Amino acid sequence: MCQINEEDDEAFQALKAAAANKTAISRKCMSCDQDACVVVRIADPMCRKCFEEFFIHKFRSTLSKSNVFGRGERVLIAYSGGPSSTALLHLIADGLSVNARRRLQFQAHVAYIDESSLYPESTDIRDKVTDLITNRLQHPLHIVSIDDNLDKDHDFQQILTERTKSLTAREELVRRRKLKLLFDIAIRENCTKLITGDNCTKLAAQILSDMAQGKGAHVALECNLTDTRNDSVTIVRPFREIMSKEIAMYNRLNSIESLQNADISTMTGPQSSIFQLTETLVNDLQRQFPSTVSTIFRTSDKLEKNLQPHRCDLCCCPLDLSEDQSLVSDEERIKLIQQLFSPTSQNMDSVHVCYACRRLLRDVQPISHSRQK
Amino acid sequence: MPSATCVSCQGQRPAALVRPKTSEPYCKVCFFEAFEREIHETIVKEQLFKPGETIAVAASGGKDSTVLAHVLKLLNERHSYGLKLVLLSIDEGITGYRDDSLETVKRNQQQYDLPLIILTYKELYGWSMDEIVKAVGRKNNCTFCGVFRRQALDRGAMKLSVNKIATGHNADDIAETILMNILRGDIARLKRCTSIITGDESDENEGSVIPRCKPLKYAYEKEIVLYAFYKRLDYFSTECLYSPNAYRGNIRTYIKDLERLRPSSIIDIIHSGEQVLVKQTAKMPVQR
To answer: Is B58 annotated as a binding residue?
Structure first.
């Protein structure tokens, strides 16, 4: 119907077979009136061609509407191996190709943060990543280990397992550490932009989870298209209005495979951390009320950014506490922050953290404490 | 092994409970003292009352309003706020729920020796909640009831000529409301819901309405229950017949789970809500 060799498209064939059994699926595409193969949003059926056009258009218009990129600008793409960042790479590859309409004009580098030191069974993830990015897509690739550049007193895996008492705190530490490393790579490679594959569904869960941890002041920043928390590198989120389901459909139709990635939350259950709990809530509500994710997103989009000039030394967001309340006085914690999160200058006179990061640090015990056990 | 001595009096008395807010062991005496002191500090810091004012305590007979009435009376005497307190109760006309809790309020009136006035939806609007639910079905009932109740409280307050209304909204309620407003996309309410006092001179939108304040804003629901239990306060503890279908139930479960993971989450959500700023350019609903 909508492509040249429909026999080759097994996704389409599978749906056609299902359609033969159930009359309900033989609906017509809302744009071109051909047979539909996917349903987007609440109940809008679309054929493959129209869906792909819709998907790609959403991505390109998000970028070009705001004139985010300068000609020849060096940008760093954050690749995690998951479906969103894999789709992101493919869309960018298409956009950079010679015969693309209104071709993307930036120079793309890719960064991958290797977390395999945090899990006992490490796989050959680096080879797979190198194969995809260096060999097939041919972008410059920068792989950095999550415990890059730490001294022997601060083994990241040990900090996470022995000194951090809750999974929530571990997830949040890893998240902040990854962002810090990505900023470092970007600065080192002279990239002025960092593109992430954060999609709308994930952002909605992140927004509520951040609210639950006291990060309400930064919600406007976390869901914005451009995030200027770092003065040298701006984060860009082109998928912010695309649902995870749409990405999954796009990947399926184009046989785009993501890497099987485990992280510290794998196999821990839906109530193991604040983020897991929130993600479960959002998915459950979305099933009953299909506008949940977009409403959360729209509401946060209407919020104003916090304009405080001073930044938190952990998450780089503007401070939401007064000068003396945000000051860290504990020496061990100061050393921890300096090791894991310090900017290029090692000696900081005073360390300041925002409300949420201060709460996070309470879950990380000082070394002397854990040695007593 | 948690220590079995109260952290506040450092062992003078054995610990009787673990405080939900701080997860520390407390004896009964120190817990009462801490609970009452924190409410007093909230009242002073936020300048909720002025001497000589008459305050209507919105009393439903439930744990929050019973504790509110008890603590306000206590603090008014202990710290000489100079307030005149009255009890204001609203009968929504929910059989099997409100008629029982009103008996509790009448007992409270005698126990605390405070004047009481009861207003009903039926006489104010011509409809009781039971009649409304029969007409519209069992969905979105809280919306009708909440809107009617606020107006009923205002009317009752004017009848009693009070300066302010005090409601028993606790920290859990406010945290739920913040999240609900995000989930429902209600930007206007999101801005207002963390205010501890609404409708006074500082609020440009509501000039001629009687101000409402929430002295229990930072008190955890669990602590209110513990306080009421240990003080053997007389309150009515069944939930409203129409609440199981409410949207708020989803969020209440979420917050209870959050509290189990991290007890400070409730106060953290309130902090988040207070930090949220709405863009000047965002479209707000206009009251006509």
So the answer is: yes
Find the Cα–Cα–Cα–Cα dihedral B250, B253, B255, B260, rounded to 10°: -160
CA dist., res. B203 & res. A323, Å (int): 28
pLDDT of residue A345: 52
| Number of domains making up chain B | 1
Domain for residue B87, yes or no?
yes
Residues of B in contact with A320 (CB under 8 A): 271, 275
Q: What is the pLDDT of residues A115-160, one digit of tens each?
A: 888 876 667 888 888 888 888 888 899 999 988 888 777 788 888 8
Number of CB pairs, chain A paired with chain B, less than 8 A apart: 93
CB A258 within 8 A of CB A218: no
Q: Which residues contact A136 (CB under 8 A, 6 or more apart)?
A: none
CA distance A91 to A56: 7
Instruction: Tell me how long chain A is.
Output: 373
Contact between chains at A216 and B282 (C-beta distance less than 8 A):
no
Are A302 and B279 an interchain contact pair (Cβ–Cβ within 8 Å)? Answer: yes
From the centroid of its chain, how far is CA B174?
9
User: A336 burial class (0-12, 13-18, 19+ CB within 10 angstroms)?
Assistant: buried
Structural domain contains residue B201: yes
- Choose the closest CB to B179 out of A211, A298, A359: A211
Domain hosting B81: range is 48-275
All residues of chain A having their beta carbon less than 8 Å from the beta carbon of residue B278 are: 302-304
Residues B268, A320: C-beta atoms closer than 8 Å: no
**DSSP per-residue letters across A188-213:** HTT--EEE----HHHHHHHHHHHHHT
- In a domain? residue B13: no
CATH number at residue B192: 3.40.50.620
The answer to whether B75 and B184 are in contact (CB under 8 A) is no
Tokens of residue A275, six digits:
């983020």
Residue B234 assigned as binding residue: no
Which chain A residues have any C-beta within 8 angstroms of a chain B C-beta? 166, 168, 207-208, 210-217, 219-220, 271, 273-274, 277-278, 281, 284-285, 292, 295-296, 298-300, 302-304, 306, 320, 355-356, 359
CA distance B276 to chain A (A): 6
Cα nearest neighbour of A274 on chain B: B258
State phi, psi for B283 to the nearest 5 degrees.
-75, 130
A224: left (phi over 0), alpha (psi -120 to 50) or beta: beta
Task: Among A211, A294, A354, A372, pick the best mutation site for testing chain B contact (most B Cβ within 10 A).
Answer: A211
pLDDT single digits (tens) A275-325: 999 999 999 999 999 899 999 999 999 999 888 889 999 999 999 998 888
Q: Count CA within 13 A, CB hemisphere, residue A49.
A: 12
Domain assignment present for B9: no
CATH number of A48-301, picked from 2.20.25.160, 3.40.50.300, 3.40.50.620, 3.40.50.170: 3.40.50.620
pTM over 0.95: no
From chain A, pick out residues whose CB is under 8 angstroms from the CB of B190: 299
